[in-house]
């Protein structure tokens, strides 16, 4: 079954404590991306990656890091989380140039105290 | 000004109604247009994808793009309670590049 998985699904943490949200896809997709979803603001792209070792900033990259060492994985790293990073996060993947193949993960709900 | 504007609703219609959802955008460089459906507590799923002006139909769903007016629409015919969800438009300049979403419109179809 084609899928994008994210872990953890729910996370409560405190300001400044580094955390990583993992994202993995089993479809051999080149393109992966991270979004955050906030009420009144919709989905905003944080980072995207068009292939291994190729990453680029989206609309709201501040406070986040990513890496793409393997094709299937695209972790999102918050080095020093702050309360304004409390949000619902989604990972997505697609074949390069084929947006029709895009899948989203189930989401990670993060609360930073 | 947001690059993509979408009325957040909420929109409530009776079962069987025709639903019209709309977005406007400001950047004429946008070439690819998408509609996503998002059920509560789920990730978005792609409904329609188009890269040209005109209409694209898929079952009860029709996506319409008017590049001259920078206006895109999604029509749902014979709406069903299972169509109750948030619908998001999304636009990108080139396929696979930065994707910009509208805020989403919350739709409820009442039996």
Molecular structure report:
The complex is a heterodimer of chains A (113) and B (111). By secondary structure, chain A is mainly β. Chain A contains no helices and 11 strands. In chain A, a hairpin with a 3-residue loop joins β4 and β5. The model of chain A has no long low-confidence stretch (mean pLDDT 93). Chain B is mainly β. Chain B is built from no helices and 11 strands. The termini of chain B are far apart. The interface between A and B is medium-sized, with 29 and 23 residues.
Quick structural gist:
The complex is a heterodimer of chains A (113) and B (111). Chain A is 0% helix and 56% strand. By secondary structure, chain A is mainly β.
- Which parts of chain A are unreliable, with pLDDT below 50 for 5 consecutive residues or more? none
State the assembly state of the protein chains. heterodimer
How confident overall, as mean pLDDT of chain B? 91
Give the biggest sheet of chain B: 6 strands, mixed
Q: Could you say which overall geometry of chain A the principal axes of the C-alpha atoms support?
A: globular
State the end-to-end CA separation of chain B.
37 Å
User: What's the end-to-end separation of chain A, in Å?
Assistant: 36 Å
Unreliable segments of 5+ consecutive residues of chain B: none
Helix content of chain A: under 10%
Strand content of chain B: over 45%
Q: What level of helicity do the residues of chain B show?
A: under 10%
Helix and strand sequence of chain A: EEEEEEEEEEE
